[in-house]
Design a protein that fits this description.
The chain is an alpha+beta fold. It has two helices and two strands, in the order ββαα. A two-stranded antiparallel ribbon has the order 1-2. A hairpin with a 7-residue loop joins strand 1 and strand 2. The two termini are 18 Å apart. The model has no long low-confidence stretch (mean pLDDT 82). GO terms for molecular function: transferase activity. InterPro entries: CAT-like_dom_sf (IPR023213), Sec_Metabolite_Acyltrans (IPR051283). This is Transferase. Keywords: Transferase.
Length: 65
């Protein structure tokens, strides 16, 4: 995902677009930093996302930029 270089510099993020989005879909890509890092896209309905965001224990384990 980050290997394509068109003269504009290395990509900052991966975006998968608006198609094929459904509740519960998780997409993973190799991370920008390399070395085993991952970019994760999670598609959830708003009520589920709100519950996840309010879970302090889970949030303490995630590194979110």
């Amino acid at each position: 995902m980050y290997g394509c270089e068109f003269g504009l510099g290395k990509a900052l993020a991966v975006r998968s677009g608006c198609t094929n989005k459904c509740d519960g879909k998780i997409t993973m890509h190799p991370g920008r930093e390399g070395g085993g890092s991952m970019d994760v896209e999670v598609c959830l309905l708003p009520e589920y996302m709100k519950n996840i965001q309010s879970d302090q224990e889970l949030m303490s384990y995630l590194m979110i930029d």
